[in-house]
Amino acid sequence: MFLLEFEGKRLFREGGIPIPIGDIASTLEDAIAIAERIGYPVVLKPQIPGGRRGRAGAIKFAENEDELRKGFGELIHREIYGKKVEKILVEKKVDIKHEYYLSYMLDFSKARPICIFSSEGGIEIEEIAAKYPEKLMKKYLDPEEGMTPYIAYEILNSVGISGKDAKKFVPVFLKLWDVFRSRDLFLAEINPLVETKEGEILAIDARVVADDNAEFR
Asked: 189 an active-site residue?
């Protein structure tokens, strides 16, 4: 079961993972009201399963209401990769200092969860692996032990992040693991996980796949 971005972010927020402020809009009036509430500039993100929306030119930015009206009109009811856009996530635009990648997924071939982290994010994981192999770390986890602070520091250190810089990422490692485990997920991906210019760590995107048998949760 593929969750939409806003549904995945709802799980992240419930798990204590910081996300940008925003809300979901189905109409232009909803979008304008959300933008007025959270303040400009905002990002408009169509809600379809999967990723690569940026490459399709489907992520819009608005500095004011006129730009929001234009961007919303270009996105709503548009088909992207064969999926019709019915909902748009309106979020506060974030001043990004750097982008990272973090995910947990279930490796069915080994029947074990794996944590993947990269000090470069914002592009598909396959592209990260091809372009920045030295910045990518994969770690299989004991399902009973899960993620621990020690393992998180080990992963971060392996890609050159240490000390105070590493410390602020560890809570996200632990909280994302709790969401992955407690919600019966096959995939919990944050790409990008960003550090803002103010020093915050935020989950800018969410790609989540859940076990169909856990839909009741």
From this structure: yes
